[in-house]
Design a protein that fits this description.
The structure is a homodimer of 631-residue chains. Chain A has 631 residues and is of the alpha+beta class. Among the domains of chain A are: 39-192; 414-512, Sandwich (Immunoglobulin-like), CATH 2.60.40; 517-630, no CATH class. Helix content of chain A is 34%, strand content 20%. The first copy, chain A, has helices at residues 17-38, 61-78, 82-98, 107-112, 126-144, 148-163, 180-191, 194-206, 213-220, 252-269, 272-288, 320-336, 340-354, 398-407, 546-549, and strands at 3-4, 10-12, 372-373, 414-416, 420-423, 429-435, 438-446, 453-460, 464-471, 480-483, 486-488, 491-493, 496-503, 507-512, 517-522, 532-537, 540-545, 556-558, 564-569, 576-586, 596-597, 603-612, 624-625, 628-630. In chain A, strands 2-6-7-8-14-10-11 form a 7-stranded antiparallel beta sheet, with no helix packed on it. Chain A has a 6-stranded mixed beta sheet with strand order 1-4-5-9-13-12. A 6-stranded mixed beta barrel of chain A has the order 16-17-22-20-18-24. Chain A starts with a strand and ends with a strand. At the A-B interface, helix 11, strand 15 and strand 21 of A face helix 11, strand 15 and strand 21 of B. Strand 15 (517-522) of chain A pairs antiparallel with strand 21 of chain B, so a sheet runs across the interface.
Amino acid sequence: MFSAVPIDRVFIDDQFWAPRLETNRRVTIPMIYERCQESGRIDALRLHWKEGQPNKPHVFWESDVAKWMEAAAYSLRTKPDAELEARLEELISLLTKAQQPDGYLNAYYTVVEPGRRWTNLRDKHELYCAGHLIEAAVAHFEATGQRSFLNVMCRYADYVAAVFGRGTGQKRGYCGHPEIELALVRLFRATGESRYLKMAEYFINERGAKPHYFDEEAIARGEDPAKYWAKTHAYTQSHAPVREQNRAVGHAVRALYLYCGMMDVARETGDKSLLEACGRLWESVYQKQLYVTGGIGPSRENEGFTHDYDLPNDTAYAETCAAIASVFWNHRLLQWRCDSRFGDEMERALYNGVLSGVSMEGDTFFYVNPLEMHAEEVKPDDPYLKAHRMEWFGCACCPPNIARLLASLGQYIYSEGERDVAVHLYVQSHADCRVAGRHVRIRQESEYPWKGRIRITVEAQSGVEFCLRLRIPGWARSRDVAVNGKPTNGNLENGYLALRRKWERGDTVDLILPMPIERVRAHPNVRADFGRVALQRGPVVYCVESIDVGVPVSSLVLPRQSEFLAVYEKQLFGGTTTIRGEAAHATDGDWERELYRADAHALAPVPFKAVPYPVWGNRSATEMAVWLRES
Amino acid sequence: MFSAVPIDRVFIDDQFWAPRLETNRRVTIPMIYERCQESGRIDALRLHWKEGQPNKPHVFWESDVAKWMEAAAYSLRTKPDAELEARLEELISLLTKAQQPDGYLNAYYTVVEPGRRWTNLRDKHELYCAGHLIEAAVAHFEATGQRSFLNVMCRYADYVAAVFGRGTGQKRGYCGHPEIELALVRLFRATGESRYLKMAEYFINERGAKPHYFDEEAIARGEDPAKYWAKTHAYTQSHAPVREQNRAVGHAVRALYLYCGMMDVARETGDKSLLEACGRLWESVYQKQLYVTGGIGPSRENEGFTHDYDLPNDTAYAETCAAIASVFWNHRLLQWRCDSRFGDEMERALYNGVLSGVSMEGDTFFYVNPLEMHAEEVKPDDPYLKAHRMEWFGCACCPPNIARLLASLGQYIYSEGERDVAVHLYVQSHADCRVAGRHVRIRQESEYPWKGRIRITVEAQSGVEFCLRLRIPGWARSRDVAVNGKPTNGNLENGYLALRRKWERGDTVDLILPMPIERVRAHPNVRADFGRVALQRGPVVYCVESIDVGVPVSSLVLPRQSEFLAVYEKQLFGGTTTIRGEAAHATDGDWERELYRADAHALAPVPFKAVPYPVWGNRSATEMAVWLRES
């Protein structure tokens, strides 16, 4: 068992992430606050809204504010900021006043539909909002040591615990959008109060029980459950008890938040059947339903999963929040078992499908992350699928989600255990770890993800015996390892190089992970990618933007024998490694008026350039493709 | 200028079509009558329906009955059938009684929404239904010489002419679903009454005028025109006056029915600007928006056109009715100019995207004709996209449409002009033509589409001088022609071999069109087909069904050098030429738990077989693909 080294003990100073985190602090977090203010999300907490006024509160508005508060708390924990703190405290004061005498706290059901609390757990996000507020309160407590917000949320949680459960007069409900489960475990960890863990267990265990709560609740509302708009309880992962679920189904963010809650409960209770369910669901997601960018959930219809290997590129939904949830879940799995399968997926999502969600400037966002984009496919009335990032969304879950993830990035890099320190991500930084009852500083130097040379320096006060675990990424075909300059093979345990020794101050480990440009193929059942390759170098997946090649990206062909070069471009987004070479493209010059004919396409050479997927759409390009035809 | 040789002067006795036409007569036409009866479409004409009763009449039900009546009339014209005649006469009697004192005839607005006539021309199909009834009445008149039905429809048309027009007190409307235009020209030709032609001209010319009739009509209904569900008047091709239209847009069947009406009016009036518009629209459809199967209209959202070269295969809508409309339009173009471009498209649609619409047994139908089908993509609640043909549809336009087309197939084969006889389709048959004031019988022998050897025998009473025009299909790379056994080159005029001479009884023309198996490529802008080939032999496009290859069709690869053989299989659907050979497929045996990796796919050889696209889905197969990856 491992624990993440928390953000206040990790100091990132690399060239890749540090500028993004600074942008997050200086641009993203303030602008999300402004958007929340403009859109009425903050005023809603004053409970002054009346019918006929603008900015009618929405059932999930608190979750946006809560995620912003969580991001702000992380930011304050690593860097004091008086203005940010004042804003956060003002929100806490609003929430404190908005809390009802019985502990209930939700603007929508207080001012828009008073008296209708808990009448539609399936669709209305009340407990989901409560979960995000709890996460924010715990983050605030951890950042400041103050219990003001935490106490508010404990009162709310206690009220929720009185309403829901298997006791007489209690509702046997649970939330249509999981989140409260993982939040309650977090609250348990922060307060030590086991009733919150019990509550999380109840929500996990009750899910999918028969008779189905959402059906009974619909009948109570006077609705026909058969006319459920989402058509299936798989949408909310309540089609079956969680321990009987073998396939990841339904809304992707809901699914992965639920799996996070399952892992959290399993970790605290040691429940093997929950762990086994998580294992099966992990295989379903990562072996059958994952985009190469770490995107999850191909369909916009249910914002989620469809059938195995169904991974269309141009219509990929791959919501930013789902990739973020993938980081959350794999991070939890890593604390349970230090296995590179989980670290690899955390890395894949972070460097690709998560980071694509926010612009280099930090002020615009993708909600949907397709792997192919053609200008004419963008429908002007589609609020989410755009060739360019947007400042805000009606459903604005993604911007504050990415803000809180980036503001807490430090915690994803290292884990500590009884006699172990694990390095999951290669980010130049240092971490103050606690291992074998001692403080050990681990310093990491690297130019990752552009270079695969990593130096770890152990700065222990004196000889401390522990196992230093370094993730050997799945994409690495070989490795060179030296301890204090002396080559060693080391043991590979679950994909981590395990270096057990008595570490002395100044001991170094040099890890070299060669980063050739790889042509990645998808499983042949992935129809969308058959006959195509994606280019990957290290953890970074590349894409082609039409601005760089001057021909339609869909007409490109990569000859099997053509060679590519990685070029570090200092001027591009403050330093980015691109892939250069020569490709071919099908010319249409001689086709003119024919749509079909029996002659093969004429191919002409074309200079080729690919850029990292996470930076796409930051220039004026409108066409993009990750998967390219190979000839 | 040419005229089609009508169905009562053409006698088909080939091996390919004759059995299908017999099935149409014996199975399809009777079963559509039964479906119309069961579903209440016939009872609706009795005008007995009252609120609360089942089978509430629908606004376009008359069109289904009318198309059935038209099919029945064609069938009676070529083969008497007392029972069929009795059913047809009973329907005529019902319609006669259903006609209102002022001539109006529509069950929905008589019993469901009385007093609301002509309040929603945009959506409600009243004039569309009138058009189909007129077509049926003309077909009945031509089949029987009786004016009973024709008179009913003339009364209705006269009433329509009083309601609509530019005169004082008239409505300046037109129908959201074109059909009345072509029907009125047909009525003009049958009756000689030029007021019907004038009326057709009015509907064509008024379309798209500003202020927009559909907007004004919506306002009159108390609706906000900006909230039009289809979002754009392009859906009904009324976004601009027809002479200003350059791209085919909107609902595909509506578009092509309109273009038919435009051609009909242009032919009668010699209006050059209409002809020019038709020419531009033809190029838009056939050079930019056509499936290789003759399917038209890729999107289910508008049942129609999207943007140029957008031709996805698995989500192709390609409604059977749109391919049928393509036959109608090209047939009209052919009478105006004997050009193989039009004959080729008529042939492509007929042998592929039209014929796929009905099962070999004649009792089930496709509404949607995708070029790729995977079992898991069929959604159980999608009423139209199925891996197998259906007995009927809620919107049942396709079954009676294909029935009326097949029942009148004879008229598409030959045209006659002042001094010309043209052969558009190679179907073993004979036709009694009128040319140069004389009767000439043209006899055609062939095993088309399986063999490209055609013998034409001219059976004139004595020497008649005329030009025999034989279409040289666009797919033919070469040809051999002999007149009375003597090789000749002949002149090619607009793609037709023009043989001018004084023909004597027994003169023969032998035409040989070699039919190698061709690998067809799509224009490189068609992203869905890039890197893929379709197999075509003669006019027939082939597809692979999983039942024949034993591996997922999407894993197939056709090596560039692999050779294929055409094999005539006597047992398959009563005789079908299939394509055999060897292909490769990507094996998934060694992939097991990986979704992405850097190694190329392992390919294994697999016996290959492709069947004609029109017969797909007639066995137990669920997977199908037209476009196959080439390596």
